Amino acid sequence: MITPDKTPFFTGRTVLLLAALLLALPSARAAMVTATPDTVTFDNAAVSAAVALAADGVPIPAAEIRGFRLLVGGSDYSHMLRFSKADGAVTISPSPTVEVGSYDLVISTGRGEARVRVYTPLGEHPSSLEVLAKKLGMTVEELKNRSGKSGSMARQQLQLDLPPLYHTGQTLALDMGASPEVLAVWEVNREKVSEGAGAGRLEYLFREPGAYLFTYTESRDGVVVASVSGLVEVVDEPVIKTETAAKTQYGLNAPEGYRKNTWTLDGQAVSAMPKFEQTFEAPGEHTIILLQEEPASGNPDGFRKIRWQLTVTAKVVK
Predict the structure, then answer these.
(1) pLDDT tens digits, residue range 26-47?
(2) How would you classify the pairing of strands 268-271 and 33-36?
(3) Which of 55, 189, 243, 257 has the fewest C-beta atoms lying within 10 Å of its C-beta?
(4) CATH number reported for the structural domain that contains residue 176 in this entry
(5) Predicted TM-score (pTM) of this structure
(6) 109 falls in which pLDDT band (50, 70, 90)?
């Protein structure tokens, strides 16, 4: 028989033993979901790409692949992508509404999320490359071949790997790790933008869409010892198509991350608030633009411009 005065002792001891056992057990860990490849580039809208999905190295069954989002910042452009799934993989391809852009593809599964960087579609939109090639006095093919080419290589590790697409308002940050003994020079479209001893770091804000040829050169005692080039294309964010009914309040929220917001409706500034609200009295088409400035982090001159194409329909009477 256990006497009453000993019961608390054994109860407390049991709790301590259980706690020790629980602490000794291995902690639960979320599965590591991977996508292979993690970057996909579409040179035209008629091709597709397969992306393998695995959790801790084990292929994810199709039944556990739930869906996807195609994001630029906080905006979803999923209508620009076709998506199908199979055991251990998904197949993606541009839809008829695709626009040139740089996107984050988020694939949701029962084991977690996987992310893929998607660039679409480069080959069918050569106009900006043609403009730059003409400006530099070369053909488009010569311009493309120039990208990634290296000259005299004193530093074999010197590389310039650039994502093919950026959006206006974004900043390209590069650091080539130049030593103080060399003169480093950065050129953009053959115009010098930075020069100095050991000045291998560059931050460049894209203010306008178009093609940009970056060239980095290192010299020592007046002799070029290393040179490399890279080509990127800069585009505006794709237009978001949306609709609302007439005589119904319509609203949009500005994404976070910027301190200044300017809303325009059909070319007229209408608000500086974080939220846009408007009631449209009649059916029609409208263009809404949000210009965001003064970012909370990063380049203080960075900005974001988001465009909506709004269709106002006749109000449905219930």
Answers:
(1) 445 567 999 999 999 998 888 9
(2) unpaired
(3) 243
(4) 2.60.40.10
(5) 0.78
(6) very high
